[in-house]
Amino acid sequence: MRTYPIPFNEEARLRSVFAVPGLSDANTGVFDAICEATRKILDCPIAHISVIEQDTQWYKSVVGIDLDRMPKDNSFCTHTIMSGAPLVVPDLSKDPRFETHPMVAKGGPGARFYAGVPLTLSSGQRFGSLCVLDLVPHDAPSDHQMAILCDLGKAVVAALEGIPPNPVERTNDYTVKATFITLIGHELRTPLTILFGSLQLLEATAQGGLNASLLSSARKSASHLTGLVETIIAFSDASTGELRLNEKVCTLEDLLKGTAELVLPGADGELRSIEFTDDAQITPIYIDPDQIMLALQALALNAINHGGHKITVARRIDASGNVEISVTDNGALDDNVELAALYEPFVVGGRLDNRDTRGGLGLGLPLTRKLVELHGGEFEVQATKDSTCAIIRLPAWRLKTVQLT
Q: Per the database record, which ranges form the Histidine kinase domain (predicted)?
């Protein structure tokens, strides 16, 4: 598995990175001077200005060590750009996110202390960080030190964008806005689809008595929609296409059981139920429960609408300690489904004109992939002639982080 999260708005972020004229390998003394000031203020031997691209990290300036372009698996700054707040890790070896990191683990250089601030362009997108490293642990920096580090980060951006004398005009990225609104708008309708389908069948069977399972699905979907709307309002930014996680310690079993309680009619009008199988006793996990539930409901709805009659949701821990969640059905994918398109940048699961009103393998799965990658995990769909299995993998550190929260 990868060891780093991917921003929800990664495609738009990369467009902003590539559009900055001053963001090239060519260096000037001003960036070295900023790095020198940074390491002195934080009392560290190493400081650098990182630039995070699609698969790699490189450096606009480095002082105190020689560093070449490296894969994002070796990057601390990839975590720093996930929010607008500084990232401070007093001892990297004691943080579950980094204890197995090649820069930290035995055999590497033995990095221990990290402090960095995200570098935010005038477009609102974050392209990298200004940070320090040390080979020994540190106490947390003072508020005064961090305030100076933030100001130095703003100086880096000003120098890159030419302020003064030629400021970069802030532009609206209409592509990212359209993509963000399309994806989120679709998934806001997913719980409503469940609600509408349940109520529709309840109405059709009202004379024969109410179906308690369908009524329960409708109520829970309505409740989830209310919470989801509040989460999106609080943790999203349509101007940059960003969606942030509202992480907390929760019980994964509750989310899976909630998914298994859905009882809905499939495309043929017959009721579909979901079986929950538990292959591992998993301790509490540190995730955004609303977003993981959103992903699970999208997978369940796809299986109900287009899968076989037997649907199972399960969890397990793989050999590396990662959490694996699967939604499996005994049906085959439709020929129009562009499965490979789920993994291509700028593509929302294939052509929109291939979709029907039932959703298919539509926008829900690309959004599921983005939500899982935002958690630092991986998503894939495995299809055979006899079954379809959608798999969410979450990194092992999300289990270990519970101990620190």
A: 183-398
For residue 73, the 8-state DSSP code is G
pLDDT band, very low/low/confident/very high, at 189 (cuts 50, 70, 90): low
Beta-strand pair 311-317/274-278: parallel
Q: Among the listed ranges 36-45, 161-170, 348-357, which one has the minimum average pLDDT value?
A: 348-357
Question: Burial of 347 by CB count in 10 Å (0-12 exposed, 13-18 middle, 19+ buried)?
Answer: middle
As a CATH number, domain 174-404 is 3.30.565.10
Residue 54: its pLDDT value, please? 92
Place of tokens 């995730």: 287
* pTM recorded for the entire structure: 0.81
Q: pLDDT tens digits, residue range 195-236?
A: 667 766 776 666 555 566 666 667 677 666 666 666 766 777
Domain positions in the chain are 10-161, 174-404
**Residue among 365, 379, 220, 375 nearest 303 (CA):** 365
Q: What class, spelled out in words, does domain 10-161 have in CATH?
A: alpha beta
For residue 252, give the nearest of 339, 177, 325 by alpha carbon. Answer: 325
Please name every residue paired with 325 in a beta bridge, in sequence order, or none if there are none: 315, 392
Helix, strand and coil content of the chain, in percent to the nearest 5, comes to 40, 20, 40
* E strand spans, 43-155: 46-52, 56-63, 70-71, 87-89, 113-120, 126-134
DSSP three-state, residue 269: coil
Residue 352 has pLDDT above 50, yes or no: no
- Residues in a beta bridge with 152: none
CB atoms within 10 A of CB 396: 17
Q: How many other C-beta atoms are found inside a 10 Å radius of the C-beta of residue 269? A: 8
CA atoms within 13 A on the CB side of 135: 7
